[in-house]
């Protein structure tokens, strides 16, 4: 039996469920959330927890997996991908080479089978969120070399689509130059659809129509759709733009600053392309921060930026279907005190009409979440009524954060990945928020939240299309040895462990979570990891360490092959901050002498399911 189907709890039991009995006894003022991590019903259900012995925490420069498992590198930065791609040579890198090779800082992974649900052969779609110039190039550059480096960086962003085939030993190999192998980059022509397409807010001197954006940047999380496309999310787009003070007026400047656009960019691209200079192209930052749909099976189609899903620092795009067949996309805005969102399409999914499905996300309703302290919640539509009565749909789409402010959305502790579970459940990782001075008494219960937590949403009636839900905290990350609010140490059979900063998540066929972290080195002093976190049973909410990563790397993009015999995941920015002159990591130790962001696969040596 699933814990949430036992009874509809009273308010008192809801508080206990949310904060635990000890939190109640301490009184409301000191009611740090005592997570009832062991609250699930006891059952003999086999979970992944019985399938592997946890690995120890690591400070080493390797990927470590449990006994009986093996991790193999599938694709690294610079590996040949598209026909004609040259081999990786860090001393001879060029934009022309990079456009044909696997990009940098890999993040989300999506595996799309080529036939049915077969795991044997498919397209692996991989986001390239960012670049790390210090780890890509040696020393400073000027003139033509500096321009070449700018173009390399644009080409190292975006997405790689790799054709992968599993061999008899269970190891995936890349078919370099396969017809569907493809790079999408910061230079790829795209189009807008939805309410803001063609609006004055999106027009630039290069594209007065406001319909033809160029490139995607900051693509972090993502998701597969039921109709066989992928959604990829532009996150920290502010980092590419400079000179906010030169924007046309105070209101315009404030709107850009709401997304952290500053005078100084992180990457300095404005020196090479005026579109990254707000003084010259004030609308260009409006053309980033979108959920982008790509059809990996049809390279002739342009990627589409769906303005109906709003413009935020999108981390996730988890798609499912409402009971009436409408498409539902959960997405999140990864910044302190920002919001979680849900889009519902106007039209319904049609299993036999792929072209119609590819247009599903062009029109619908974007909602933002309000979490109440009593464990209920509402999805509030962002539509031109009430406080938004004088807003146009285009303005709501482009200035989504400000629209959500006006309807009273709940500020969250940096919402990262969202994933759909069985039975109308969804999970969102709140990675951390040390700026929160006091807990909100609801879904963000902890002050100075340095370790993050995971919230479980149960849609009313088990229907993802519902506008009401219940919520509870599945897991409150931290170090149980130093933080009494972290309660999983006492659970049967589980040794006390410190875990921090949940980021990406995959849900397996049992409904259990596999959570990747980003930030453990600073939060708890050990390398980032992948954790198995049951969603039911007696170890509900108790993390078990499945994998540890190399020095300086965050773990991103866990994705199971359909048969769950292989787990794909990305090792992003190994050796971060070290630079090529004084590297802190040489992972994957492949003889090139440079740390290389890579996708790895994990499998059991006996060939059985991981889950
Ligand atoms: Fe790119 Fe929110 O992580
Ligand atoms: Ca992330
Ligand atoms: Ca995910
Ligand atoms: Ca993160």
Please give the structural blueprint.
Elements: H1 11-26, E1 69-76, H2 95-98, E2 106-113, E3 121-128, H3 133-136, H4 143-156, E4 158-166, E5 172-174, E6 182-184, E7 191-193, E8 219-224, E9 230-234, H5 250-257, E10 291-294, E11 304-306, E12 318-321, E13 326-332, E14 336-338, E15 340-348, H6 354-357, E16 364-371, E17 376-381, H7 393-398, H8 400-406, E18 412-413, E19 415-420, E20 425-430, E21 453-459, E22 468-476, E23 502-507, E24 513-517, H9 520-524, E25 529-533, E26 544-548, E27 554-560, E28 566-572, E29 598-604
Parallel strand pairs: 7-11
Antiparallel strand pairs: 1-29, 2-3, 3-4, 4-5, 4-6, 8-9, 9-10, 10-11, 12-13, 13-15, 14-18, 15-16, 16-17, 17-22, 19-20, 20-21, 21-22, 23-24, 24-25, 25-26, 27-28, 28-29
Residues 220-221, 315, 416, 503-504, 518 line the site of one calcium ion.
Task: Give keywords.
28% strand, alpha+beta, 9-stranded antiparallel sheet, binds MU-OXO-diiron, 611 residues, binds calcium ion, 9 helices, globular
